[in-house]
Amino acid sequence: MRRLTWFNTTSLTLGFAFLYLPMVILVIYSFNSSKLVTVWAGFSTKWYGELMRNEAFLDAAWVTIKVAVLSSTFATVLGTLAAYVLVRAGRFWGRTLFSGMIYAPLVMPEVITGLSLLLLFIGIGLDRGVMTIVLAHTTFSMCYVSVVVSSRLATFEMSLEEAALDLGSTPFEAFRLVTLPIIAPAVISGWLLAFTLSLDDLVIASFTSGPSATTLPIKIFSAVRLGVSPEINALSTIMIAIVTIGVISASLISKRAAVRQRLEEQQAVRS
Amino acid sequence: MRRFALIAIPYFWLLALFLVPFAIVFKISLSDIALSIPPYLPQLELAKGWEGFTKFLGALDFENFEFLMMDDLYYKAYLSSLKIAAISTFLTLLIGYPIAYAMTRASEEWRPTLLMLVILPFWTSFLIRVYAWIGILGQEGFLNQTLMFLGLTSDPLIILNTPIAVYIGIVYTYLPFMVLPIYSALEKLDDRLLEAAEDLGCSRIKAFWLVTFPLSRGGIIAGCFLVFIPTLGEFVIPSLLGGSNTLMIGKVLWDEFFSNRDWPLASAVAVILLLILIIPIILFQRNEQKQRESEG
Questions:
Q1: What is the pLDDT, as a whole number, of residue A1?
Q2: Using one digit for the tens of pLDDT, what is the confidence trace for A180-229?
Q3: Is pTM beyond 0.80 here?
Q4: If you count residue pairs, one on A and one on B, with CB atoms under 8 Å apart, how many are there?
Q5: Distances (CA, A) of B204 to A155, B188, B201, B212
Q6: Is A169 helix (H, G, I), strand (E, B) or coil?
Q7: Options 1.10.3720.10, 2.40.30.10, 1.10.443.10, 1.10.10.10; which CATH number does B67-295 get?
Q8: Interchain contact, A22 vs B266, CB within 8 Å
Q9: For B18, which DSSP code?
Q10: Residues in contact with B43: Cβ distance below 8 Å, sequence separation at least 6, in sequence order
Q11: Which of A89, A101, A246 sits opposite B19 (nearest CB)?
């Protein structure tokens, strides 16, 4: 019954061409030796060289990575905690408000989130810089983490934790030895999601950063406003390459882990 | 006690960094612009105690909201954002549905790869994906060069810095958000229903409209909201692809804040945008809840 008609094949081909051609063109033109991005003048890697010598971009890249590592780590801890509370803590005062605050940032326009956080930081007299961006990114990405982790938590039986408690472990031990290993893949993908969200963010970072901290997206945005530049093409190509390698290797690792888990389960059943 | 601490940490984090900031936005939207640091008045003077507080409350007013109603720039921007968001949601559905449908028709071993190909652009930088279109749509861009080379047009088409470029940008960047929910709705579809419909004399096309399409409605609704809601406040796409004649409220808020430095007015723009968004957000939540209930 499941078959690919010519119509389905065409829509898949056109759809993926639409999704991928712009990026392919971008990558090709990053190797163009001409300064005029629209005219092909031969293969060259000189823009990558220019990029490596551009201090401003390198500084911004360093700030971006610092912010992304810190905020995704905080977001993973807070988000996992929030997911645990959401799925396991039962009823408590203000639970509806809590789950609302988890889901609302996911659909909130970035301009509003950015503006509101900036006004908060000004209100309490916090100097804007790396720390304020980290706080802002932690807040919105912890919500993504908790959605990813809570969907994993909801699918496995609470009885496993209860068994550990019955066998004499403390609640913390039960979490560390039983729950955490089971939800670990979701926690890791939550961290990765938070990391890429932070790398990618322009709007919230623009509002919450100060003159002392410029992130890569802010830098790219101000360069791109003036038009296409071969250096930005080169930078984009590097970022696309990193993401592609990361996503493909992550999916291979999780596939291997799934196979191993199935084998172990089969062995456990047999013995 | 431990349970309390467990709940309190994420709870108070979100209260302090999500809810309180909104209260501040609301408060500042009632203030007046001033030449001070921060650039708005009145300031709450805690040192003066209760009297300072009442004086502060007395100085708040709805002037900014009145201004938003009077000046037609703002309601035009809201209306044009709604229009752009609605049209581009429809276009994304039109392009996304056939892709999602075709993915479920592909063989079992191909599907994970196709799924990854849809998700992969989502992980690459949003900014870069929008930027890629500047080089394609410009007057001397890739598209015009190809069209002129093929002899399809003699003069370059003007697409960049028009609303068409904004539509292309939105459809391109939000396509995965449409494809994924529709795909997951279609994947759960029982093929035997289609066989039954065909046995009962439906043509393939009729079977699609009577069986497949209604059963994928939950996915369609979810996909439409996932595109419509963020598009409404979109800033990056209109400012890079739209030029000065595309009016969107996210851009107006940005300019009001960064160029005019009118923080109270920017806050008022945000408050109204939030009020507009509440309706689709509630409808979206309800749809999600219904989906979950029908599954469980």
A1: 45
A2: 888 888 899 899 889 999 998 999 999 999 888 899 999 999 888 877 78
A3: yes
A4: 229
A5: 37, 19, 9, 10
A6: coil
A7: 1.10.3720.10
A8: no
A9: I
A10: B56
A11: A101
Range in B48-62, B185-199, B209-223 with the lowest mean pLDDT: B48-62
Å from B268 to nearest chain A CA? 11
Which residue does chain A place closest to B125, by CA atoms? A200
Which of B117, B118, B119, B123 is most worth mutating to test chain A (most A CB atoms within 10 A of its CB)?
B123
Are residues A210 and B98 in contact, defined by beta-carbon separation less than 8 angstroms?
no
For the segment B239-267, the average pLDDT, to the nearest whole number, is 89
How far does the CA of residue B200 sit from the closest CA of chain A (Å)? 16
CA atoms within 13 A on the CB side of B275: 9
Which chain B residue has the Cα nearest residue A240?
Answer: B124
Tokens encoding A188: 């890791």
Render the burial of A137-146: b for 16+ CB within 10 Å, e for the rest.
bbbbbbbbbb
Amino acid at A176: R
Question: Tokens representing A250?
Answer: 């992550």
pLDDT in tens, B25-38: 998 888 888 766 67
ipTM: 0.86
Domain ranges of chain B: 67-295
**For a pLDDT cut of 90, what percent of chain B falls above it?**
41
CB of A12 within 8 Å of any CB in chain B?
Answer: yes
Residue B240 has pLDDT above 70, yes or no: yes
How crowded is the C-beta side of B141, counted as CA atoms within 13 Å?
Answer: 22
Contact B264, B31 (CB under 8 A): yes
Nearest CA to CA, how far is A271 from chain B (Å)?
A: 31
* Residue among B137, B146, B95, B89 at smallest CA distance from B241: B137
The residue length of chain B stands at 296
**A 173-192 → B contacts, CB under 8 A:** none
The arithmetic mean of pLDDT across residues B169-196, rounded, is 91
Parts of chain A with a pLDDT under 70 = 1-4, 37-38, 271
Give backbone dihedrals phi and psi of B32, rounded to 5 degrees, phi first. Answer: -115, 150
